[in-house]
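Objective 1b. Sequence-to-structure analysis of Polysaccharide biosynthesis protein.
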Amino acid sequence: MEMLGIITRLSRATKQWLILTNDVLLVPVAMLLAMALQLNAFPDSSHMMRNWLLIPVLMAVCALVEIGMNIHRVQLKAYESRAIALSAAHAAILGLSGWLIERAGGGNTPGATFVTFSMVYLLLAVSSRAVMLKLVLNAYRQQPKLRVLVYGAGRTGQQLVAALRTDETVRPVAYIDDNKMLQGAIMQGLHVHAPAAIARLVRTKRIDRVLLAMPSVPRARLAQLSRQLEDKGLDVQTLPSFAQLAGNGVPLVEQLRPVVPGQFLGRAPLDAELPGGSETYRGRAVLISGAGGSIGSELCRQILACRPRRLVLFELSELALYKLDQELSALALDLRVEIVPVLGSVCDAPLVRRVLADHEVEIVLHAAAYKHVPLVEQNPVAGFANNVLGTHTLAQAAGEAGVARFILISTDKAVRPKNMMGASKRMAELVVQDLANRSKTTIYSMVRFGNVLGSSGSVIPLFHDQICKGGPVTLTHREVTRYFMTIPEAARLVLVAGTFATGGDVFVLDMGAPVQIYDLARQMIESAGYKVRDEQNPEGDIEIRLTGLRAGEKLHEELLIGENQIGTPHPKIMLAREAHLSEIEVAAGMKALRAAVAESDDDALRAVVARWVEGGRALIDRPVPRIESRDQIPAT
């Protein structure tokens, strides 16, 4: 193993110089042997002294000619007939050069000696390379071999095994094949086993990897099989088809084209139609909470383009904050924007107040929230603590610090909520509306989103992951519809709507007709090059499986509470004037909520929701759903 380490650490240039040095040092050895063969005895010292100048000159000629012919660049494993022919020419040139040099110096060594020298030199050059190759192969044989199962005993699998046997680092152990006619047979010395034997073979034969040698099998089947084997803890690789090997395709493992979320909107993207707003943020100190999230990070990029004086990145996740800080710091240098990363929670009141004061924040964009419906449903206390109490902490501190504008990023799930996440966002809206009614300096407003395509936990990444694994694509109900927008649209909406705010406003984007999620699933499957498997097409690749609506999930989402909506200076942005709680009601609700959170009391928390949130009574007696498998997670 030590020798292998030395070999692998040598650079290619070093290996080439070692071969060149070997060939140069063979010159005196070959000359000595040639003279010995010619004299039938080793030459004495006086004979060698008469030729003392010939040897070093001939060694120099050897190096120059070899470099000119690039013989030292030929790899040991590639040293075959053509390379041997080059070495023969090299040896002949050396013999001729030696005879000419010797004659020019007045010597009388027979010409046959130099012919013998050329032959001996060629023999030594070829033999030395054979020895070096043997040493290298022995070194590689000392390392543990990769033990592989070949899935597929057909022609491709047999060709693969034949090729692997020439590799010193890999050892084929057995075949696996679904064809019962082949099971039990012996091919190329390897037994063919049924798929049911994989677990036993892994245990008894110490299998390291499974190679799928079935390029004609549909891609969806390969993806499913790969997932099943990986679930057993196996490393799985797929043999490409011959067309892919020729460069006419892509690797099967990376068969899906990148998904562009905007292609599934069913309408033209609107981010290009949402210009303006940069004047509000130029030269100001802006804080974005939840800066490392999907929406928060896009807000940071778009705000940065507005050239604020300072951009404060407030984020709970260390990794997300680190990545965003690295990205934005490089961009901010040219724009002369100060980037301030702050690691912490919006629930930490002393930290929030200090950050707002120390960095003289003038605008707050509040994107920090727990948004995944199933997780908040199972962890309502944590969800309400972050989404409601965190919003109250940050919004109240912003008012006390004299912040000019505070914008809450909300969701359509806050409209007559059917789940705890939506209820928490609705209570956050009520808190901000209450502060807006009482504030004389800070303008509080809200922006309500539909589903954001491509954000973490949204439907497109979920469907894409399921398609990558060969399906099925899971959907809770065939008739489910959702409003969709892209991440750039969402960020642009926040920036533009923030410039229209006068206090207590709720802004929504005109997103056109809602999208049917079943149609979206079909589009994604087909755009990936697959066919949907259903009753009309039982031979299709990927199935869309309906799992049933979960508790708290709506068939159709809404963007507005009531019909009271008015236009804004931008035709695609609507302003909702909605009813809100009184100051006393909000204070009572927050007091009850803080008590429920302090006691970690789910029942008390649901009672608060039932009392203060529209439609919240339906949530009080509903059992908490359990997520037993990923297939149960709703599509949106």
